[in-house]
Write a structure and sequence with these properties.
Order of helices and strands of chain A: HHHHHHHHHHH
Strand order of the largest sheet of chain B: 6-7-8-3-9-10-12-11
Helix content of chain B: 25-40%
Distance between the termini of chain B: 34 Å
Oligomer: heterodimer
Mean pLDDT of chain A: 87
Number of helices of chain A: 11
Radius of gyration of chain A: 24 Å
Shape of chain A: globular
Structural class of chain B: alpha/beta
Radius of gyration of chain B: 21 Å
Strand content of chain A: under 5%
CATH class of chain B: Alpha Beta
Mean pLDDT of chain B: 89
CATH topology of chain B: Rossmann fold
Distance between the termini of chain A: 69 Å
Shape of chain B: globular
CATH class of chain A: Mainly Alpha
Largest interface: A-B, 22 and 28 residues
CATH topology of chain A: MetI-like fold
Strand content of chain B: 15-25%
CATH architecture of chain A: Orthogonal Bundle
CATH superfamily of chain A: MetI-like
Bound molecules: adenosine-5'-triphosphate, magnesium ion
CATH architecture of chain B: 3-Layer(aba) Sandwich
């Protein structure tokens, strides 16, 4: 690349102006919903984000739903039988999986279930969101699901511990409450006391925390997406980092922060639906 | 002969706690006939709530109960879980100490009253709902209160909801553990009159736990006075507090302020000393260290309940029958 070309490129991306002016311009364009143009793809950042958003929501959404269902269920069970062998085993397993590095777990799963080890054949694709050349509704769905299994499993394994711990501790907080003694005195079975009385109360702090935490899941999927070449925001971010594609990175950071704020807002709106005490009369 | 409504024999309850075993009840004997109203008095920590909870086997997991609690001839402590669940609330219900926290905060109070009806009886939703409305009227609440959440009600209203709930399945026995503590005096009187009226009207047996001796006297047929996990005196309500036989009862009566009693002004009666620590009870009679009429033998003898006049019993060495030594 010649010096003239370099200068021209600098000019196209307005990199020849002072940094302060560049930032001012950026803010001004941001106010009009323009996140700038990616160095790497030469396309508007906003369009790139929107294009990759679907894949991430598909993966992260599925994984979060599964992890929340699993974590809340296990959390309720372990709290109810606190101190028992099942409680300790469950908590220990969840904490271990939580502390395992995501990419490492993903790689192990790829080695074992995608490449195949010894007698285990490669069951699932090593990466990507779909295989080329598949047609027909059923094969396409099956292909999509097969691609989803490993990255989703990795995320669930890493995520469910938080839900388990949140549910467990909120339920333990409720445990000594008098209304549970009332419920038992009424002649309800233990499981009914748990389901009808304890869980609805423990769900309030849990749901708030789940939503607060949801905002960070999107950005947390970066490593999983990179490992599984999942064509979502995470991979986009990873690619941008290696270049480095500054406008794209900046756009993604902004997007990740916005998603945290939106989730906080949702949590705030959801609370009154669950807790009559928060509703204003 | 039909069995008594409730017959408690040598009931002992021990809690396991970090600091060791806590003997909260140390041999309770008490019989309640159908429709009878029995009051339980005694200072904080003497085991009144423990007694109330053990009547329906509601003690926390760390507690161990031995003895017998026969409810219409069946032992609560040994009956199967299925039978116990059937007895709970449909035969005997509890109004708990502290109505503030006894209702589920995230459910409408009406549905909480409805719950035991649907659980224990084969009735249609609509019929059960109609019954909830009637119950609310009985306890002096508007039927629309059923849609309120506990935090929207006053303490007195919540306690009325608890009473409606306790009566929902027409039980044979209601246990009320200080149903009016944390309420102001006017509301206390209303609630107690309400309990009295409903229980008497329906011939329900009542165990009323209260610090308020005048309430016990006016509401109950009989009273039992507890000290350190045992009943130390028992007899007709009017007589026990008017003419105590046990020195602890006498101290309890002396500590109770009488309005308009000029001589009692400015000098609160009562005991010089803290309530006994159930983990460090003295040998012999547990009341001995605070007793004004203790004698040397009290250190060795922990007296059982001895007859103390017509229909009365008390556990004091000074009442020892002449044929016992
Ligand atoms: N869960 C528990 N674990 C250990 N000890 C307990 C437990 N519950 C109660 N105790 C002890 O048992 C004794 C009796 O307690 P209980 O609650 O029955 O008293 P009470 O007569 O109802 O007092 P109050 O008038 O204050 O309600 C107390 O010494 C208390 O410290
Ligand atoms: Mg109590």
């Amino acid at each position: 690349m010649s010096a003239a070309q370099l200068a021209e490129l600098r000019h196209t991306f307005a990199l020849d102006k002072p940094v302060v002016v560049q930032f001012g311009d950026y803010l001004l364009r941001l106010a009009h919903g323009d996140l700038g143009v990616s160095f790497q793809y030469r396309t508007p950042v906003l369009r790139l984000i929107l294009e990759h958003l679907g894949a991430t929501v598909y993966l992260v959404g599925t994984a979060t739903l599964l992890a929340a269902a699993l974590g809340l269920w296990l959390g309720a069970r372990t709290a109810w039988r606190r101190g028992g062998a099942a409680d300790r085993a469950n908590t220990a397993i969840a904490l271990t999986l939580w502390s395992v590095p995501t990419f490492w777990l993903g790689l192990i799963l790829i080695v074992v279930f995608a490449v195949g080890v010894g007698p285990i054949p490669g069951l699932f694709p090593t990466g990507g969101i779909s295989a080329p050349g598949v047609t027909g509704i059923f094969p396409v769905v099956a292909d999509r699901l097969a691609h989803l299994v490993l990255p989703c499993l990795t995320l669930v394994a890493v995520l469910y511990a938080q839900y388990l711990l949140i549910m467990r501790s909120s339920l333990l907080d409720e445990m000594g409450e008098d209304y549970l003694t009332t419920a038992r005195a009424k002649g309800l079975r233990d499981t009914e006391v748990l389901r009808r009385h304890a869980v609805p109360n423990a769900l309030l702090p849990t749901v708030t925390l789940v939503f607060l935490q949801l905002g960070t899941v999107v950005s947390g999927a970066v490593l999983v997406e990179a490992v599984f070449s999942w064509p979502g925001l995470g991979s986009l971010f990873y690619q941008a980092l290696t270049v480095p594609d500054l406008p794209l990175l900046q756009g993604l950071f902004l997007f990740f922060s916005a998603s945290v704020i939106v989730m906080n807002l949702l949590a705030e709106l959801l609370c009154p639906l669950l807790d009559p005490r928060v509703r204003t009369g | 002969m039909t069995p008594a409504l409730l017959e408690i024999a040598d009931l002992r309850v021990t809690y396991r706690s970090a600091s060791g075993e806590v003997p909260a009840l140390r041999g309770i004997d008490l019989t309640i006939e159908a429709g009878q109203k029995v009051g339980i008095a005694g200072e904080s920590g003497c085991g009144k709530s423990t007694l109330a909870l053990s009547l329906l086997r509601l003690l926390p997991r760390g507690a161990r109960a031995t003895g017998r609690i026969c409810f219409e001839g069946e032992d609560i402590l040994t009956m199967g879980w299925g039978r116990l669940r059937a007895v709970r609330w449909s035969e005997a219900s509890i109004v708990f100490q502290g109505a503030m926290h006894s209702l589920n905060p995230v459910r409408q109070v009406g549905s909480q009253v409805l719950e035991p009806i649907l659980l224990h009886e084969e009735v249609e939703q609509a019929e059960a709902r109609a019954r909830v409305s009637r119950l609310f009227e009985d306890v002096g609440l508007a039927a629309s209160t059923a849609h309120a959440y506990p935090h929207q009600l006053s303490g007195g209203q919540r306690q009325r909801v608890m009473i409606a709930m306790a009566l929902a399945c027409s039980p044979r026995l209601v246990v009320a553990d200080e149903p009016t503590s944390a309420l102001d005096v006017m509301v206390q009187a209303q609630i107690l009159r309400l309990v009295d009226r409903l229980v008497t009207g329906q011939g329900i047996g009542l165990v009323l736990i209260s610090h308020d001796l005048s309430v016990l006297t006016s509401t109950c047929d009989r009273v039992a006075v507890m000290y350190a996990g045992r009943i130390v005196e028992e007899g007709p309500a009017a007589e026990v507090f008017a003419a105590p036989r046990h020195p602890y009862t006498a101290a309890l009566v002396a500590a109770y302020p009488r309005i308009g009693d000029e001589t009692a002004r400015g000098k609160p009666g009562g005991l010089a000393g803290d309530p006994p620590d159930p983990q460090r009870l003295p040998a012999g009679c547990s009341f001995r260290p605070l007793c004004p009429v203790a004698v040397a033998e009290c250190e060795r003898l922990d007296p059982p309940l001895w007859p103390a006049g017509a229909g009365r019993q008390a556990a004091c060495i000074h009442l020892r029958p002449s044929d016992v030594r």
